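The pair is set out directly below:
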Amino acid sequence: MRAWLGVVCRDHVLRGTGLGIAQLNHGRRDAVARLAAGDWLVYYSPRTSLAGGRPLRAFTAIGTVADEEVWQADEGDFKPWRRRVDYLPGAAEAPLARFDGTLDLTSGPDWGYRLRRGLVELTAHDLALVRAAMVTA
């Protein structure tokens, strides 16, 4: 079991959680193919929406990958690759500022550059802190 951080705007996170799916890196296959059944997926949303959204900087959803299937949706001209995810019901958003430097993710210099990949692995320590904040918030 591994834990992953997907970087996605909140509007897209809300759509994905409503559908019970994960979609990363604008629908590319490579990122969702790295996930395995039982892995944790935490979404971090730098902004509320992709274009022109206000800054958010919060963890916005958390769940586990439901199965091994990587599948391609058909939305007309857009055919994104997706995974099924069992999101934790009632999980609350957790602002990054709440963690005040306690996350391994933010401990190094220029840590934000890693987020540009769209998917980064989380340590067990970070998963435990973020999960606790989102479930008990």
Notes: The mean pLDDT is 95. Helices lie at 10-19, 29-34, 124-136. Residues 44 and 59 are 4 Å apart (CA to CA). The longest strand covers residues 55-65.
